[in-house]
Amino acid sequence: MSYKESTLNFIKQCQRVLHVAKKPDRTEYINVAKITGIGIIIIGVMGFIISIPAQLLGA
What we know:
- The chain is mainly alpha-helical and 59 residues long.
- The protein contains two helices and no strands.
- The longest helix is centred in the last third of the chain and has 31 residues, at 26-56.
């Protein structure tokens, strides 16, 4: 497959994805934002919990 053919194939795939994709409605956007926020908070709390014993042990 030549460079030109692979580039055209990539462009066709991108067009297909953009055609199928849709803009999320308000409720879907809010749900995704909530889930993302909860995930960030959980990771932050886990990091905090791990850092406290590490500081106490002098690591």
